[in-house]
Amino acid sequence: MLEQRIKFRHLQTFVEVARRKSVIKASEALFVSQPAVTKTIRELEEVLGVSLFQRDGRGIALTRHGEIFLRHAGATMTALRQALDSVSLDSAQMGPPVRVGALPTVSTRIMPKAMTSFLLENTGSPIKIVTGDNAVLLEQLRIGELDLVVGRLAAPEKMTGFSFEHLYSEQVLFTVRAGHPLLAVERNLFEQFRNFPVLMPTKSSIIRPFVDHFLIANGIPALPNQIETVSDAFGRAFLKSSDAIWIISEGVVSGDIAEGSIQALPIDTSSTRGPVGLTVRADTVPSLPQSLLMQMIRDAAAGLGSG
């Protein structure tokens, strides 16, 4: 039978190559040779009767069949990981782990309050919180390395196999340090942007399309002095020590704005408003600790930008 010919090593190797989009990187992660990885993938493709990967520039990408198989292979690996965790944690009298991916917009605004409430429940569950690019976090969620992602709603083509729960909405802000020269400018604000360094979200970030469309709509097709970054630590430090403009999600700098160290330029950015919420795999049932944390996140987000 088909399922009897597919071994654990086939699924493990396939998921690792799909995640890293590289046979070389997958072989390093699995501690096996590159030919062994290639052979295992070919064996799996022969069993399935379809190609799972295709050339994409200098790298590789999943075919349509590969994308379909990844959803189910990822679910299988997640179920196996949960089974192993359940046995090991039961022997140690610990709760199941909860692994959360949080975009910078919620890492400072939502997660501290949610985690404080969650720890009071004494579930005994190990917690892992990682922050990164939205595409990376969703890929980790898809293959079972994360249990949920908290952040902006991704594009429809990226949400296959996921379920999204809207918590609140927020917009992009153009921010500067307190006392910045642009705070005194009353007219033609956009024309002044070329005179200052501008921190932009990276091209792969979820808010970049909103930013690009907004700038073009306001007569700014390009910025000559542009720095791309997803590091809120760098953005915050650079902004406070220079005359830079930081284009960033409202949630990342809400605390700084409340303290007065950073200010938003008087620009109507309501067109960049987008939903923020919980993304989970549609084919998994959350554990009790995960359900508790999700409720704590809902409570922490209550009343934030609900319009």
The end-to-end span amounts to: 54 Å
Give unreliable regions as ranges: none
By CATH, the topology of the largest domain is D-Maltodextrin-Binding Protein, domain 2
Q: Overall mean pLDDT score? A: 86
CATH architecture of the largest domain: 3-Layer(aba) Sandwich
Strand content: 15-25%
What is the count of helical runs? 12
Percent of residues in helices = 40-55%
Query: Strand order within the widest sheet?
Result: 4-3-5-12-6
Give me the Rg, rounded: 22 Å
- Give the total of beta strands: 12
Task: Determine the structural class based on helices, strands and strand pairing.
Answer: alpha/beta
Shape: globular
| CATH class placement of the largest domain | Alpha Beta
Q: For the record, what is the CATH homologous superfamily label of the largest domain?
A: Periplasmic binding protein-like II
Main beta-sheet strand count, sense and barrel state: 5 strands, mixed
In total, how many domains does the architecture comprise? 3
The run of helices and strands is HHHHEEHEHHEHEEEEHEHEHEEH
Explain this structure to me?
The chain has a 5-stranded mixed sheet, sandwiched between helices. The chain has helices at 2-5, 8-20, 23-30, 34-48, 64-91, 104-107, 111-119, 134-142, 208-217, 232-240, 250-259, 288-301; strands spanning 53-56, 59-62, 98-102, 127-130, 148-152, 162-170, 172-177, 198-200, 226-228, 245-249, 262-264, 274-281. The chain is 43% helix and 19% strand. It has 3 domains: 2-70, Winged helix-like DNA-binding domain superfamily/Winged helix DNA-binding domain (Arc Repressor Mutant, subunit A, Orthogonal Bundle); 95-168 and 275-301, 3-Layer(aba) Sandwich (D-Maltodextrin-Binding Protein, domain 2); 172-272, Periplasmic binding protein-like II (D-Maltodextrin-Binding Protein, domain 2, 3-Layer(aba) Sandwich). The N and C termini lie far apart (54 Å). Helix 2 (8-20) packs across helix 3. It is globular. It is of the alpha/beta class.
